[in-house]
Amino acid sequence: MANEVAKIYSDIAELLNLARAKAYHTVNSIMVETYWKIGQRIVEEEQGGASRAEYGAKLIENLSKYLTDTFGKGFSEANLKNMRQFYLTYPEFDTQCVANLSWTNIRTIIRIDNKQERDYYLKEAAEQNWTSRQLERNIKSGYYHRLLSTQAGVNNTEKCLPAVIDTKEFIKDPYVLEFLDLPENTEGKESVLESALINNLQKFLLELGKGFSFVARQFRISTETDHFYADLVFYNYLLKCFVVIDLKTTKLSHADIGQMDMYVRMFDELKRGADDNPTIGIIFCTDKSETMVKYSVLQESQQIFASKYKTVLPTEEELADMIQKENIKLLYLKDK
User: Fold this and answer.
1) 175-313 placed in CATH 3.40.190.10
2) Strand 304-310 with 280-285, pairing
3) C-alpha to C-alpha distance for 102 and 95, rounded to whole angstroms
4) Which of 101-110, 171-180, 181-190, 227-236 has the lowest mean pLDDT?
């Protein structure tokens, strides 16, 4: 009898939680669209839609006082300017993308100057349900630029529609692991790095990106005569394949590439299911030679990747360097 009563309580509590979540989502969507319409009305008033007007600041100042007196908090001059910028940034309201985001996330995204980068964060934050903290962290860590560095110019961020899945859309370079609270120099401490990643698995999964689920650490692969141990193994349900990660606390070497090539081949032969796609291997290293990458299997491989990792957030100079390298790569591809 007690179990039946507990089940009733649990079922009703679940119904209420679902109803509240739906109500919050509905209210949020309505408010976001309302803020967009307020921004539209402000812009229309500014000399027939011109982006700047001499009396624009005065209009917002007076409007802020009126709305605050009438409706209370939430209508500061800064927030009204955000609504105005929201409309200017997205003159067409896209329910599929924009309405699914919190106003806090939208305010963060519209501050990004680059349109492609802005559209990427809009799409991913909506699809992956990023919190405002996750979004800010990803922007600060150069999430978009780190992904783009592996894609050779591939860009699917123009629309908020599902893109054709490409392996390189899931690989970053570098990975940023500032949440581990480890020193920059971890040479000779692979086990320390591995343990820190396991202890911060949820944050590591967020850094890896969408679709990853943890399988095991020190995963044993056995042949008739030998046993081998892969540092970390994940499965990506979007790519539908195993992802093997090998941790190195030194610069990438030929031996590291050979070892990963062996792991990938063994996983494909011994662990890969009938419906699985080919295994992906990622070597985490502190540095790598572009010459080695160019003249090794890494150059053309769709299965093996080498990515640097950092244990601190990139500086503004490092982010600028990422963007510069990305632009050079795009120019090179256009010339070809």
Assistant:
1) no
2) parallel
3) 13
4) 181-190
Assigned token pair, 125: 């934050």
Percent of the chain with pLDDT over 70: 88
CB 254 within 8 A of CB 217: no
DSSP state of 313: P
Report residue 95 as tokens: 């329910």
Closest CA to 168 of 316, 23, 304, 322: 304
Identify the H or E element spanning 188. none
- Binned at pLDDT 50, 70 and 90, residue 130 comes out as very high
List strands edge to edge, sheet with 212-222.
Answer: 175-176, 304-310, 280-285, 241-247, 227-236, 212-222
Distance CA 254, CA 293 (A): 10
Kindly indicate the confidence band of residue 225, based on its pLDDT and cuts at 50, 70 and 90. confident
CA dist 197 and 177 (Å) reads 9
Of residues 163 and 299, which shows the higher confidence score?
A: 299
**In the chain, where does the domain assigned CATH 3.40.1350.10 lie?**
175-313
Q: In the structure, how many helices (H) and strands (E) does the chain have? A: 12, 6
User: Cα–Cα distance between 106 and 40 in angstroms, integer?
Assistant: 16
User: How many alpha carbons fall within 13 Å on the CB side of residue 68?
Assistant: 14
Sign of CA dihedral 269, 272, 278, 279: negative
Torsions phi, psi for 240 (to 5 deg): 60, 55
pLDDT over 50 at 158, yes or no: no
- Are the C-beta atoms of residues 260 and 244 closer than 8 Å to each other? yes
Among 127, 126, 153, 130, smallest CA distance to 141 is for: 130
Arithmetic mean of pLDDT, 190-199: 94
Structure tokens belonging to residue 191: 């086990």
Give the other-Cβ count within 10 Å of 77's Cβ: 15
The token duo for 80 is: 């009204």
